[in-house]
Design a protein that fits this description.
With 338 residues, the chain is α+β, with helices and mostly antiparallel strands. It folds into 3 domains: 77 residues, no CATH class; 131 residues, no CATH class; 108 residues, no CATH class. Helix 4 runs parallel beside helix 9, helix 7 packs antiparallel against helix 11 and helix 9 runs antiparallel to helix 10.
Length: 338
């Protein structure tokens, strides 16, 4: 039998044929008969004018799948069918390439949410449709980033005042304007659950759009924004609520994270590393600021928080790891772990 794409084929026991594929073809293996259930045949695969049944499907250690095919038994009903030929394999490879590109773009958009969350709402929504990210979440992460910057400016201002230095009035006015804008963005994002850009992000993107002509126009209004939209179905609303609060779930105890995983399919690996990295950066900023102001207690608190994040990043290689901040975030996720 001829293999297609990058697959490798070899003979197995008896009439079995073993196909090693670096891609998951989505073939379901045979479910054997038990005391309470009947036998359920595997996917019927048409290969060179002959039908084969997927008897087993196991992941390979280096990635990919190992399928064991057996000649189709005539007394079985074909419930799920597929074709194994050059055209189908080429389509699978192209779909996998597109999926990897979308996944890479999705991770990049999430990693750069501190910046992409400032883009106009129409651009964030476009990213959401193309990459499968939540536009409202990008905005929320950018809002948190602005609060961190503003907190640093406040600490710097207090330090200058304590040292009897003059405080630039221009800096105070800009900081107040950014703070007011951030409060408005937070209220819109939290109450309406939609993306909203910032003045700086809109201006930067408008210049880019005018110069390059790429991307949606920031001057256009997206269709549907002025239309009354019905509430999302309960299951969709619950899923979005979980996705929005996933970074907070990473700070809970392993047992609480296990409950969230069992109920909602939560995976600690998606957000734990990024959340620990953000907290480590905030702790480092706090240590530097406290050292510059000569205050010991806040510096020790920031140092302890930073050490904890380093320990968590190491522990996350083996499984979920909680944080002392779980007492702070637990009220916001209580309904998900109750």
């Amino acid at each position: 039998m001829q293999a297609y794409g990058s697959d490798r084929v070899r003979a197995g026991d008896g009439e079995q044929i073993i196909v090693a594929s670096r891609l998951d073809k989505g073939w379901t293996p045979r479910a054997p008969k038990t005391l309470t259930t009947a036998e359920f045949p595997g996917t019927a695969v048409l290969w060179e004018e002959c039908y084969f049944e997927v008897a087993a499907a196991t992941p390979l250690p280096q990635g990919g799948m190992r399928y064991v095919l057996e000649p189709w038994r005539e007394h079985l009903a074909m419930r799920v069918t597929d074709r194994y030929d050059a055209a189908n394999e080429a389509q699978r490879i192209e779909e996998n390439r597109s999926r990897l590109a979308r996944e890479k773009g999705r991770k990049s958009a999430n990693a750069l949410a501190l910046l992409t969350g400032h883009l106009p709402a129409i651009v964030q929504n476009e990213l959401g449709r193309d990459l499968g990210v939540l536009p409202a979440r990008l905005t929320f992460v950018s809002i948190i980033g602005v609060w961190v910057v503003l907190a640093g400016l406040v600490l710097l201002s207090v330090s200058r005042i304590m040292q009897s230095r003059s405080l630039p009035s221009g800096l105070v006015i800009v900081a107040m304007g950014v703070a007011i804008e951030n409060v408005i963005r937070f209220l819109v994002n939290w109450t309406q659950g939609r993306a909203i850009g910032s003045a700086i992000g809109w201006t930067a993107y408008a210049i880019y759009h005018v110069v390059s002509g790429r991307g949606p126009s920031p001057f256009a209004s997206e269709k549907g924004l002025a239309v009354t939209i019905t509430e999302a179905p309960p299951e969709i609303a619950e899923r979005d609520s979980i996705v929005m609060r996933e970074p907070l779930l990473t700070l809970l105890t392993p047992a609480e994270q296990a409950r969230a995983a069992a109920r909602y399919g939560y995976d600690y690996r998606r957000e734990s590393g990024a959340m620990a990295g953000i907290l480590l950066a905030v702790a480092a900023l706090g240590m530097v600021s406290s050292y510059m102001r000569g205050v010991i207690v806040p510096m020790l608190v920031a140092l302890a928080l930073g050490i904890e994040q380093v320990v968590r990043l190491i522990a996350l290689r083996r499984g979920p790891a909680g944080s002392v901040l779980r007492f702070v975030v637990r009220p916001f996720v209580r309904k998900l772990i109750a």
